[in-house]
Amino acid sequence: QEPLVESGGGLVQAGGSLRVSCAASRSAVTADAMGWFRQAPGKEREFVAAVTWREGSAQYADSVKGRFTISRDNAKNTVYLQMNSLKPEDTAVYYCAAGGVGLGRVFWWGQGTQVTVSS
């Protein structure tokens, strides 16, 4: 069983919205937090957002604050990233991750899902 399974993503015009989801296995759900990183072509992977399972405390990269919202459904072991007011620079492969608080340490990675924002 894959530790993290992503869904959602796709192609959207600038200013539009998308939601990506990540379902965690029994192993991955034991992590303190889950969230998302992204990697654009030719760039390093960067942190996007994280949420703690227990308290639901969220953290965001400055570049997405006010536009993206991370949430979790403990009953479904699933984390969601709602992305609004998307910009072409948000285009990247989005990777789900599970690990320590704030995802300073990542123990599990998802396979990645493509998000493309056209101008």
Describe the structure.
The chain has 119 residues and is mainly beta. 0% of the residues lie in helices and 53% in strands. The chain contains no helices and eleven strands. The strands form two sheets. Strands 2, 4, 5, 6, 9, 10 and 11 form a seven-stranded mixed β-sheet that branches. A hairpin with a 6-residue loop joins strand 4 (33-39) and strand 5. The chain is globular and about 40 Å long. The model has no long low-confidence stretch (mean pLDDT 95).
Instruction: Give the overall average pLDDT.
Output: 95
Strand content: over 45%
**Class computed from helices, strands and strand pairing:** mainly beta
- The overall strand count is 11
Separation of the first and last Cα atoms: 38 Å
The number of distinct helices, counting runs of at least 4 residues, comes to 0
Set down the secondary structure blueprint.
Layout: E1 4-8, E2 10-13, E3 18-24, E4 33-39, E5 46-52, E6 58-60, E7 68-73, E8 78-83, E9 92-99, E10 106-109, E11 113-118
Parallel strand pairs: 2-11
Antiparallel strand pairs: 1-3, 3-8, 4-5, 4-9, 5-6, 7-8, 9-10, 9-11
Briefly summarize what is shown:
With 119 residues, the chain is an all-beta fold. It has no helices and eleven strands.
Entry keywords:
11 strands; 119 residues; 0% helix; 53% strand; 4-stranded antiparallel sheet; single chain; 7-stranded mixed sheet
